[in-house]
Design goal:
By secondary structure, this protein is an all-beta fold. About 0% of the residues lie in helices and about 50% in strands. Strands 1-2-3-9-5-6 form a 6-stranded antiparallel β-sheet, with no helix packed on it. It has a 3-stranded antiparallel β-sheet with strand order 4-8-7, with no helix packed on it.
Length: about 110
Amino acid sequence: TALAGIPDFYEHPVHTVRIDNDKKVIAFERCGYWFFFNFHPVQAYFDYELEVLRGSYATVLDSDRAEFDGFSRRENGQRYFSMPREFGEVISLYLPPRSALVLKREF
C-alpha cells in the first residue's frame, strides 16, 4: 500500500481529530496523513467541517472510487484547502456513506 512505503509510519502516534458517534464519523491524523471515515450505512454528509492544520491536502485514497466498487462521487485527484474559522482551521468534506478518505497535507 501507499502507506507501507512511509518510513516509520507505524511508529508515529495517532492524533484523534473527531469521533462523532451520532453521525458515525471518525477522523484522525498520523504522520501528515489525515484519515476520514463515514461508517453510516445510508447518510452522506455535505460540507462536513473538521479541524485540521492550515494547508493544502491532496487525495491519497478515496474508497468511493469506481476501482473499489464505489460510485465516484468525489472528483478524482480532488485537492482540499483549509479555511480559517474563529477557533482555528477547518477542512470541508463530502463524506458519502460507508466510505473512507485519506489526505496528505502538502504544506
